[in-house]
Amino acid sequence: MAEAKLIDGKAFAAGLRERVGKGVAELKAAAGSTPGLATVLVGADPASQVYVRSKGKMAAELGMTRFEHRLPAETGEEELLALVRKLNADPAVNGILVQLPLPRQIDTSRVLLAVDPDKDVDGLHPINVGRLGSIAPGALLDFPVPCTPLGCSMLLADALGPLAGRHAVVIGRSNLVGRPVAQLLLRSSCTVTIGHSRTRDLPALCRLADILVVAIGKPGFVRGDWIKSGATVIDVGINRVPAAEGKTRLVGDVAFAEALPIAAQITPVPGGVGPMTVACLMYNTLQAARRKAGLPFVAV
Ligand code: NAP
Fold first, then answer.
1. DSSP structure string for 95-148
2. pLDDT tens-place string over residues 279-297
3. Is there an atom of ligand 1 within 6 Å of 152 CB?
C-alpha cells in the first residue's frame, strides 16, 4: 500500500504568516494602525522563555509592535492582574498573551478571566470559550479561537476540503486542545466523538475515524492498527524521548512509522501541527486589530 501523504504544517504555517504579514501592511495603509501583541512571562521556565521569545520575534517580523513583560517567579496574583488591566486599557495593545503555566501562587483562571475578551488572542477567556461552544454550523470564526485547535482545523480544511459528514474522533479533552478541536469539527459538520482516559476500547473507537485527532501527550500511544485505512491523522502530541548518543528527539502521540502505510494523510512531528500554533497566534492578533479598527472579518 502507498504511504500516507504528509500534511506539511511547516509550509502551511509559512504561507499563513505571509498572508498575516500582508494583512498587517494593509491594515496600516487602510486604518493607520499597527497590530500590537503583548506577551507576559512570569518566572524563568526555560521552555516558556523560548516560546515567548519566538512569539515576540515573529510578531516583529510580521510588522507588529511587540510589548514584552517579564515578571519574577515570585510575582503575586494582584500584581499580575494589575498588569493585565493596564494592557487591557492600552490602545496600542490588540493581543495579550499570558504564557502558561503560571507559578503556583497565581490562580490561572482568575488571570484568564481578567484579560479583555477582545484581546484574548489565546482564545481561553470564558466568553470566547462560550462563543466557540455555541457556534452555529459553518458560522464565521470572527472571535479569538485557541491557536493549536485553529491550526488543526486549517490543516484539515486544506487537506480534505469540506469536512461535513465525516466521522472525526478526537482523543483528548483538554480545554487547550481536545475540546476546542472537537467544537471546530462540529462547526464543520463532522460527526464528532471525543475519547479520553476513561474511554472503553479506545482502539475500536479510533478505527471508526475518517479523521483522527490525537492530543494526549503520550509518545507513540496510538498504534498503526488503531487507524482506519485511508484516514486522515492529525497528531498534536509533542513528546521529547531519548535518542541515540544520549540525545533526545521529538515524537508525536501516534506511532508514526506504523501509521504511515495505513493512513491516507498524516501530520509529522515535528513539522505538522507545531508550527501552526504561533502562526495562528499572529492570525488572531491581526484579526483583533482589524476588529478594533472596525474592519469586516476576512479569513486571511
Ligand atoms: P493535557 O491537558 O494533559 O490533556 C491530555 C488529554 O489526554 C486529557 O484529556 C486526558 O484524558 C487524555 N489522555 C491522557 N492519557 C490518555 C489515555 N491513556 N487514553 C486516552 N486519553 C488519554 O494535554 P494537552 O495540553 O491537551 O496536550 C496534549 C498534547 O499536545 C501534549 O503532547 C502537548 O505537548 C501537545 N500540544 C501541542 C501543541 C502544539 O503546538 N502542537 C500545543 C499544545 C499541546 P482525561 O481528561 O481523561 O485525563
1. EEEEPSSPPTTS-HHHHHHHS-GGG-TT--SHHHHHHHHTPPTT----S---HH
2. 999 999 999 999 999 999 9
3. no
Q: Is 264 in the pocket of ligand 1 (CB under 6 A)?
A: no
Residues identified as active-site: 55, 99, 122
Ligand 1 near 178 CB (within 6 A): yes
Output the pLDDT for position 300.
Answer: 87
The band of 1, judged by pLDDT with boundaries at 50, 70 and 90, is low
- How far, in Å, CA of 300 to CA of 287, rounded? 9
The CA distances from residue 54 to 30, 45, 146, 170, 285, in Å, are 28, 14, 18, 28, 15
pTM comes to 0.97
Distance from the alpha carbon of residue 125 to the mean position of ligand 1, in angstroms? 20
Distance 46 CA to ligand 1 centre (A): 21
pLDDT, one tens digit per residue, over 126-150 is: 999 999 999 999 999 999 999 999 9
Atom of ligand 1 nearest to the CA of 199: 20
Q: What does CATH list as the number for 32-118?
A: 3.40.50.10860
* Residue 181 CB–ligand 1 contact under 6 Å: no
Q: Which fold has domain 145-276?
A: Rossmann fold (3.40.50)
172 CA to centre of ligand 1 in angstroms: 5
Protein residue whose Cα sits closest to atom 35 of ligand 1: 237
The domain ranges of the chain are 32-118, 145-276
Question: Number of C-alpha atoms within 13 angstroms, CB side, residue 59?
Answer: 29
